[in-house]
Protein backbone atom coordinates (compact mmCIF):
# COMPACT_ATOMS: atom_id res chain seq x y z
CA UNK A 1 0.00 0.00 0.00
CA UNK A 2 1.43 3.37 -1.00
CA UNK A 3 2.79 5.48 1.83
CA UNK A 4 3.70 9.13 1.97
CA UNK A 5 6.23 11.42 3.61
CA UNK A 6 4.52 14.76 4.10
CA UNK A 7 6.35 17.87 5.24
CA UNK A 8 5.00 21.28 6.18
CA UNK A 9 7.96 23.64 5.90
CA UNK A 10 7.70 27.12 7.39
CA UNK A 11 9.12 30.07 5.46
CA UNK A 12 12.78 30.73 6.04
CA UNK A 13 15.48 32.84 4.49
CA UNK A 14 17.17 31.11 1.54
CA UNK A 15 20.37 29.35 2.56
CA UNK A 16 23.05 27.53 0.54
CA UNK A 17 22.75 24.44 2.76
CA UNK A 18 19.05 24.12 1.90
CA UNK A 19 19.92 24.32 -1.81
CA UNK A 20 22.49 21.55 -1.27
CA UNK A 21 19.89 19.43 0.57
CA UNK A 22 17.50 19.78 -2.38
CA UNK A 23 20.27 18.89 -4.84
CA UNK A 24 21.21 15.76 -2.86
CA UNK A 25 17.82 14.36 -1.80
CA UNK A 26 16.83 12.39 -4.92
CA UNK A 27 19.66 9.81 -4.64
CA UNK A 28 18.51 9.13 -1.05
CA UNK A 29 14.98 8.38 -2.31
CA UNK A 30 15.87 6.15 -5.26
CA UNK A 31 16.81 2.97 -3.34
CA UNK A 32 13.45 3.14 -1.52
CA UNK A 33 11.29 3.85 -4.57
CA UNK A 34 10.52 7.38 -3.37
CA UNK A 35 9.26 10.01 -5.77
CA UNK A 36 8.10 13.56 -5.35
CA UNK A 37 4.39 14.18 -5.82
CA UNK A 38 4.45 17.78 -4.54
CA UNK A 39 7.55 19.97 -4.34
CA UNK A 40 8.01 23.71 -4.68
CA UNK A 41 4.33 24.24 -5.51
CA UNK A 42 2.19 27.19 -4.49
CA UNK A 43 -0.29 26.34 -1.72
CA UNK A 44 -3.90 27.45 -2.09
CA UNK A 45 -5.34 27.72 1.42
CA UNK A 46 -9.07 26.96 1.51
CA UNK A 47 -9.49 26.57 5.29
CA UNK A 48 -7.44 27.77 8.23
CA UNK A 49 -3.91 29.00 7.67
CA UNK A 50 -0.88 27.36 6.14
CA UNK A 51 2.25 29.44 6.44
CA UNK A 52 4.91 27.88 4.29
CA UNK A 53 5.19 25.05 1.84
CA UNK A 54 4.15 21.42 1.54
CA UNK A 55 6.21 18.52 0.22
CA UNK A 56 4.71 15.10 -0.54
CA UNK A 57 6.87 12.10 -1.41
CA UNK A 58 5.31 8.74 -2.33
CA UNK A 59 6.83 5.36 -1.45
CA UNK A 60 5.67 1.85 -2.35
CA UNK A 61 4.89 1.15 1.32
CA UNK A 62 5.39 2.43 4.87
CA UNK A 63 8.40 0.20 5.52
CA UNK A 64 10.28 1.80 2.63
CA UNK A 65 9.23 5.31 3.69
CA UNK A 66 10.54 4.59 7.17
CA UNK A 67 13.67 2.97 5.75
CA UNK A 68 14.40 6.08 3.71
CA UNK A 69 13.89 8.48 6.62
CA UNK A 70 16.07 6.38 8.93
CA UNK A 71 18.75 5.60 6.32
CA UNK A 72 22.30 6.78 7.00
CA UNK A 73 22.48 8.46 3.59
CA UNK A 74 19.39 10.57 4.29
CA UNK A 75 20.41 11.25 7.89
CA UNK A 76 23.68 12.63 6.52
CA UNK A 77 21.93 15.40 4.56
CA UNK A 78 19.00 16.04 6.91
CA UNK A 79 20.83 18.68 9.03
CA UNK A 80 21.31 20.76 5.88
CA UNK A 81 17.55 21.40 6.01
CA UNK A 82 16.78 21.23 9.72
CA UNK A 83 19.36 23.88 10.61
CA UNK A 84 17.43 26.38 8.50
CA UNK A 85 13.76 25.29 8.21
CA UNK A 86 11.17 24.65 10.88
CA UNK A 87 9.00 21.76 9.74
CA UNK A 88 6.48 19.12 10.70
CA UNK A 89 7.16 15.82 8.93
CA UNK A 90 4.97 12.72 9.03
CA UNK A 91 5.04 9.29 7.43
CA UNK A 92 1.58 7.88 6.70
CA UNK A 93 0.15 4.89 4.89
CA UNK A 94 -2.40 5.55 2.20
CA UNK A 95 -5.74 3.79 1.88
CA UNK A 96 -6.01 0.46 0.05
CA UNK A 97 -7.51 0.12 -3.42
CA UNK A 98 -11.27 0.11 -3.21
CA UNK A 99 -11.37 2.12 0.01
CA UNK A 100 -14.92 3.13 0.93
CA UNK A 101 -15.23 6.03 3.40
CA UNK A 102 -18.81 4.96 4.18
CA UNK A 103 -17.42 1.77 5.75
CA UNK A 104 -15.17 3.87 7.98
CA UNK A 105 -18.12 6.08 8.93
CA UNK A 106 -20.15 3.00 9.87
CA UNK A 107 -17.31 1.71 12.10
CA UNK A 108 -16.97 5.11 13.78
CA UNK A 109 -20.74 5.32 14.26
CA UNK A 110 -20.81 1.82 15.84
CA UNK A 111 -17.87 2.62 18.13
CA UNK A 112 -19.50 5.89 19.25
CA UNK A 113 -22.75 4.08 20.02
CA UNK A 114 -21.03 1.53 22.29
CA UNK A 115 -18.47 3.82 23.83
Automatic annotation (TrEMBL):
Positions of the DUF1330 domain: 2-95
SUPFAM superfamilies: Dimeric alpha+beta barrel
Superkingdom per UniProt: Bacteria
InterPro entries: Dimeric_a/b-barrel (IPR011008), DUF1330 (IPR010753)
Entries under Pfam families matching the protein: DUF1330
Bilayer-spanning residue ranges: none
Cited PANTHER family: BLR0684 PROTEIN, PTHR41521
Protein name: DUF1330 domain-containing protein
Organism: Streptomyces caniferus
Organism placement in taxonomy: Bacteria, Bacillati, Actinomycetota, Actinomycetes, Kitasatosporales
Amino acid sequence: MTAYAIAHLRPAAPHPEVFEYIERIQPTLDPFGGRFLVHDAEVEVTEGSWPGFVVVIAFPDLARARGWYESPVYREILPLRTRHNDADVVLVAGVPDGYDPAVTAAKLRAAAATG
